[in-house]
Structures are given as structure tokens and as C-alpha cells.
Amino acid sequence: MTQHRKGLVLDFGGVLTTPLLPAALAFERREGLAEGTLLTALYLDAEAIRLTEELERGTLTQTRWNEAAAERLGIPPDNLMGRIFADLRPEPMMITAAAAARRAGIKVGILSNSVGPTPWNLYDGYDVETRYDALVLSEAHGVRKPEPEIFRLMLKELDLAAEECVFVDDTEQHLPPAAELGFAIVHAVDPAQTVAALEALLGVPLM
User: Fold this and answer.
1) Residue of 102, 84, 98, 125 whose CA lies nearest to 11
2) CA 123 → CA 4, 71, 169, 193, 204, distances in Å?
3) 95 in a structural domain
4) Are 191 and 91 in contact (CB under 8 A)?
5) How many CA atoms does the CB half-sphere of 111 hold within 13 Å?
6) Both 197 and 115 in a single domain?
7) Strand pairing report for 165-169 and 134-137
8) 32 and 100, same structural domain?
9) Is 2 a domain residue?
């Protein structure tokens, strides 16, 4: 007999929001940058990656990240993070599914590599403190995905074992450490496919 999971752990950006890449491409178009400039300058460069990791650990402010990233891109720094992700919107199918899971008695937590609250707050308008059973933001703990410790922090918040939980993330490299701890994992690529996978793992309808 299948043992359904009792906990659901969700990444935030790209899972409870629309995908990050289209937003980044739209930003490049608005700023008059060649396609791929953002990826090359900020996410394929070792020093830029280090700065982003510091941001996610809470040891670098978003304002300082904006300044460093803007210098690399050759554009103004004002609210750069907010400008990059201005097109992000709530993903209604996943938000509905998370709410349905909670109504069915499943504990739902948000596990996010955060980017600082100012000048742009990724979580504004999503009521993450009230709509979910646990919220673990990397900047508050000094650890980030894919480090195993951040998954253990979430399990402590939910008071569940990893073998009782499902973890969903749109970043594939964040999934193996969770699987090694015992989580069932779902790579979020398409919301409908993600919801179908979760219904099978949780044993409840989510739409």
C-alpha cells in the first residue's frame, strides 16, 4: 500500500510565481540589452555568483548587490532586482494546490533562497507568513539551498521527517540534497504536471 506524504515543501520563485527566465528576458528587452547578457554577467561569472550567494545568506544587502550587478551590466542600479523580476506574477495553479493541501491536513512550508527585503520584496502580496505552516528564508539562517542544513531547518519547523515530505523546486540542482535526506522530489517545470505529481504523492486532490 502506498504511504502518502504528510508534508509539502515548496520553493517560492518559479514555483509559486511564474517562471523567472521569461521575466529576465523581458528585463533585457526593456533595458536594451542583448539576449543572454543577464545570464552571462550575473549567473555564469564566478564573482557574480559569489555575490548572489552572499545576498542569499544575508551577508550582502540587496542594495549592494544591485550596485555590483549594475556595474557589470552597465546600467543604473536603482531597484535593479525589482526591475529584473518586474514581470513575475503569482502562479495561480500552484497557489490553489498549496491551499488545497493545507485544507486536506497536509503541512505546507515555503523554503526559499531569499534576496533581502529592500528595496524590492519578492514576497510582497503573497501572505507567506499566514498562508503556510512554515517559512524558511535563507537570509534569516545564513544557509541556502542546496545545503542540507536548510532542509533540516524546514523539517524542524514542520515537525516532520524527510520521508514524510515532498520537496518542489524549479532549480534542478536543489533537488538531489533533498532526495538524499529522504524527501520525495518534484522538478517544477509545468504547473499542471507538478500538481498531478503532487496529487499522486500526497494522495489528495489539489484542484
Assistant:
1) 98
2) 30, 26, 16, 24, 27
3) yes
4) yes
5) 33
6) yes
7) unpaired
8) no
9) no
Q: Give me 143's grid cell.
A: 544557509
Quote the pTM value. 0.96
- In whole angstroms, give the CA distance from residue 172 to residue 165: 17
Per-residue tens of pLDDT for the chain, all 207 residues: 468 999 999 999 999 999 999 999 999 999 999 999 998 999 889 999 999 999 999 999 999 999 999 999 999 999 999 999 999 999 999 999 999 999 999 999 999 999 999 999 999 999 999 999 999 999 999 999 999 999 999 999 999 999 999 999 999 999 999 999 999 999 999 999 999 999 999 999 998
DSSP-derived 3-state class of residue 35: coil
CB of 51 within 8 A of CB of 206?
no
Which residue's entry shows cell 528595496?
119
Three-state DSSP at 97 gives: helix
Domain count within the chain? 2
Considering 40, 55, 84, which residue would you say is the last residue of a domain? 84
Same domain, 67 and 115: no
Sign of CA dihedral 45, 67, 25, 82: positive
Domain that holds residue 156: 7-18+89-202
